[in-house]
Specification:
heterodimer, A: 343 residues, mainly alpha, 0% strand, globular, B: 290 residues, 11 helices, elongated
Chain lengths: 343, 290
C-alpha cells in the first residue's frame, strides 16, 4: 500500500515538474520567432508589391500590433488548439507538415539508437572486463574517434565507401527506391508499413536506404553510451555479489550478463535522454546529407528560406520529444529502482 | 577528492601527469599534437604554399601531387593551403567561444552555488530549459537570429557549451563550500570574495580545465556543422565545414580529396581535444588512477 502510494506520488511530482518546463519552452519559442530577422506581417502580405496599408492590415489581423503579453497568451491558446501556423514554403499547415514528416525522423533516430546500443553495450562490457588492457584502450579509442567525427563527416565517409567505392548501399536519397511500389501509409514508418502490407521489395529497399543514415547517427553516440556501460560495469563487477558468483563457479554468461549487466544497465538508461537530444540535433545535419524527408531537413530548409512558423513548430516538437523521453526514463527508473523514489 | 587537492603540490601533479601520459600513449600523442596544431594555425599564412583564395582555372580538380599536396578544387584553389588557413578560423572561433562560456558559466554556476536559494533555483531551471532543446538546434536558431557573421557563430558555440560549465562550476563550488579548509579560511577572517577567488576557484580549476578541453572539441564540431548546413560563415571563406560541404558535391564524381582532407583535419582536431580531455581527467581524478 505505502509502496504504491510512493510510486504514484513520485510520478505525480515528476509530471507536475514538467509543467513549468513546458511553459518555459513555449516562451522560448515565442521569443525565438520575434528575434529572428524579418517582419512576419510583410511576409504574410500579398508579396513584395504590398503597400504599407496592406502590411499594417495583415499586422492587425495577425495580432502583431497587440501588447506582447496578449500575443503570448494568444500563442499559448493556438498551441493548445494544435495550431502552429502556416508554412510559406509548402503552403500547408505546419502541424500537418510535421505529422507527415515526423515518422521518417522517428524511424531514423529509433533504428540509430538500437544500432548504437547493440554496439556500445557489448563493447562497454568487454572494455570493463578487460579494463586497463590493450583491448580496453583500443575500444575506447575507436569510440572517441566516432564521437569526434562531425555527423556530416561520418555520413559523407560512409556514402563514399559504401555507395561510391563498394556499391553496396543504394543512392543516398530519400527513404525508398522511387521504382518500388510504396506501401500504403498507415504508421508513416516505412519498415512497419511495408511489413504490414507484406511488401518485401519495399521493405528491403526501405531497410537498405535506412542503413547508412542510421549508422551515421549511431556512430556519433556510441562513445558516450559505451563509456557509461564501461564505468557502471566496472563498479558492478567490483561488488561482493559478483565475487560470490565467481567463487561459486558460475559461467561467464551468468556472472557478466545475468548478474553484472542487469545491475549495470540502469545508469546507461538514464543517459539516454541526453543521447537522444544530441541525436535530434545531429538529425538536421544527417537528414541534409542523406536528403532524408524528416522534420530536421524541413526545419533547416524553412530556416534558410526565412519561413519561421515551421522552425517554431519544429523547436517546440523537439523540446516535447525530449521532455517525454526524459520523463518516461525517470519514471521507469523509479519503478525499477526504489531508491530513486525516496529522494 | 578534496583531500587530494590539499595535499598535492605542483611537483606532485606534474609527476602524476607524466606517469599517466607514459601509461596512455594515445593521450600523450594528443598532448603533443595540440601545440603543433596551435603553431600551424598561427603560422598558417607563412606555411601555406598558395593564396587560399587564388583560383587557377588551368588546374582545376587535380588530385594530390607534389605541387598540390591535397589537390585542387573546382576553381583550382590549393586544398592544402585552404585546410591550413581554415585551422586559424576554426580554432579562433572555438577558443573565443569556450573562453566566453567558461567565464560566464563559472561566474553564474559559482554564484548559484554560493548564494543558494532563489539564484540557485533560477540558474538550475534556466540550464534545464536550455538542455530541453537539442543544443545544435539552439545554435542554429541563434545564428539565424543574430545574422551570418563570425561573432554569431562564436556566441552560438558558446551557448552550446554554457550549461556544462555552469553545472560543473555549481557542483564543484558547492562541494568545496563545506570543505574544512574553506571553513578554516573563513574562520581565519578572510573575506568571502577572497575565499572565492583565493581558495575555491583555484581548487575547482583542474576539473574545469578538463571541461575546457572537451568544450574546445565540441565548439569546433559545432561551428563546422553550422557552416556545413549553410549558416554563419559564407563561401569563399576557407573553413573546414564549408570545404566539406563544397567537396561533398564532388565526391560522387570521384574527386574525393576536396572533402576528405578538410574532414580529416576537422576530425583529427576534435579527436585531439577529446583525448586531451580524457588524459587530463585521468591526471586529475584520483578515482580513475590505477
Amino acid at each position: 500500500m505505502t509502496r504504491n502510494f510512493e510510486i504514484w506520488r513520485f510520478i505525480l511530482r515528476r509530471l507536475l515538474g514538467v509543467l513549468p518546463l513546458l511553459i518555459g519552452v513555449g516562451i522560448f519559442t515565442f521569443i525565438l520567432v520575434r528575434v529572428l530577422p524579418g517582419d512576419p506581417a510583410a511576409y504574410y502580405a500579398t508579396g513584395p508589391l504590398a503597400t504599407q496599408e496592406e502590411i499594417e492590415q495583415v499586422r492587425s489581423t495577425l495580432g502583431l500590433d497587440r501588447p506582447m503579453v496578449e500575443q503570448l497568451a494568444r500563442y499559448f491558446k493556438d498551441i493548445a488548439a494544435g495550431d502552429l501556423g502556416h508554412s510559406l514554403v509548402t503552403g500547408q499547415l505546419v502541424s500537418r507538415d510535421l505529422r507527415e514528416r515526423f515518422p521518417a525522423s522517428f524511424e531514423l533516430t529509433f533504428v540509430a539508437m538500437l544500432l548504437a546500443l547493440s554496439f556500445s553495450i557489448p563493447l562497454g562490457i568487454v572494455a570493463a572486463i578487460r579494463s586497463g588492457s590493450w583491448t580496453d584502450h583500443v575500444i575506447r579509442f575507436i569510440g572517441t574517434l566516432g564521437v569526434s567525427m562531425p555527423a556530416f563527416v561520418a555520413g559523407i565517409v560512409l556514402i563514399f565507401i559504401f555507395y561510391f567505392k563498394l556499391g553496396l548501399a543504394p543512392e543516398p536519397i530519400d527513404r525508398i527506391d522511387p521504382f518500388v511500389l510504396k506501401p500504403p501509409r498507415v504508421t508513416g514508418l516505412m519498415l512497419v508499413d511495408s511489413a504490414m502490407a507484406a511488401n518485401l521489395p519495399a521493405f528491403l529497399s526501405a531497410l537498405t536506404r535506412l542503413f547508412l543514415p542510421a549508422l551515421t547517427m549511431a556512430v556519433i553516440v556510441i562513445a558516450p553510451l559505451m563509456r557509461m556501460t564501461r564505468a557502471s560495469m566496472i563498479a558492478v563487477l567490483a561488488s561482493d555479489f559478483i565475487r560470490t558468483a565467481r567463487a561459486t563457479g558460475m559461467g561467464w554468461w551468468t556472472v557478466y550478463v545475468r548478474y553484472g549487466l542487469r545491475n549495470a544497465l540502469l545508469p546507461v538508461l538514464t543517459t539516454i535522454g541526453f543521447v537522444v537530444s544530441y541525436q535530434l540535433g545531429a538529425n538536421v545535419v544527417v537528414e541534409k546529407v542523406f536528403a532524408w524527408p524528416g522534420v530536421g531537413s524541413y526545419a533547416l530548409n524553412s530556416l534558410l528560406a526565412t519561413d519561421y512558423a515551421p522552425v517554431q513548430g519544429y523547436v517546440l516538437l523537439m523540446a516535447c520529444v525530449y521532455v517525454v523521453i526524459n520523463t518516461s526514463v525517470d519514471i521507469l527508473h523509479a519503478l525499477v529502482d526504489p531508491r530513486v523514489r525516496i529522494e | 577528492m578534496s583531500a587530494e587537492f590539499e595535499s598535492s603540490s605542483l611537483a606532485d601533479r606534474a609527476g602524476r601527469a607524466l606517469h599517466v601520459l607514459a601509461r596512455n600513449p594515445v593521450s600523450a600523442a594528443a598532448f603533443f599534437f595540440i601545440p603543433t596544431l596551435a603553431a600551424v594555425a598561427i603560422l598558417a599564412p607563412w606555411i601555406a604554399l598558395y593564396d587560399p583564395n587564388a583560383t587557377d582555372l588551368d588546374h582545376v580538380l587535380q588530385g594530390p601531387t607534389h605541387l598540390h599536396w591535397f589537390g585542387t578544387d573546382q576553381v583550382g584553389r590549393d586544398v592544402f593551403s585552404r585546410v591550413l588557413v581554415a585551422s586559424r578560423l576554426d580554432l579562433a572561433i572555438a577558443l573565443s567561444a569556450v573562453m566566453l562560456s567558461f567565464l560566464v558559466g563559472t561566474v553564474v554556476g559559482g554564484a548559484a552555488a554560493l548564494f543558494g536559494g532563489l539564484p540557485d533555483r533560477l540558474v538550475g531551471r534556466l540550464t534545464d530549459l536550455l538542455m530541453t532543446f537539442p543544443l545544435f538546434v539552439v545554435a542554429m536558431a541563434m545564428v539565424a537570429a543574430l545574422g551570418n557573421s563570425i561573432q554569431s557563430i562564436v556566441f552560438a558555440s558558446a551557448v552550446v557549451n554554457l550549461p556544462f560549465f555552469a553545472r560543473l562550476a555549481r557542483s564543484e563550488i558547492s562541494v568545496l563550500r563545506s570543505q574544512p579548509f574553506v571553513e578554516a579560511a573563513r574562520a581565519g577572517g578572510n573575506s568571502e570574495l577572497h575565499i572565492l577567488f583565493g581558495f575555491m576557484i583555484p581548487n575547482a580549476l583542474p576539473t574545469l580545465t578538463v571541461q575546457v578541453s572537451t568544450g574546445l572539441g565540441w565548439a569546433v564540431l559545432n561551428a563546422a556543422s553550422l557552416s556545413f548546413i549553410g549558416l554563419g560563415i559564407r563561401p569563399p571563406t576557407a573553413e573546414w565545414g564549408i570545404m566539406v560541404a563544397e567537396g561533398a558535391a564532388n565526391i560522387l564524381s570521384g574527386f574525393w580529396w576536396l572533402a576528405i582532407f578538410p574532414a580529416a583535419a576537422l576530425t583529427l582536431t576534435v579527436l585531439c581535444f577529446n583525448l586531451l580531455g580524457d588524459g587530463l581527467r585521468d591526471v586529475i581524478d584520483v578515482r580513475t588512477r590505477r
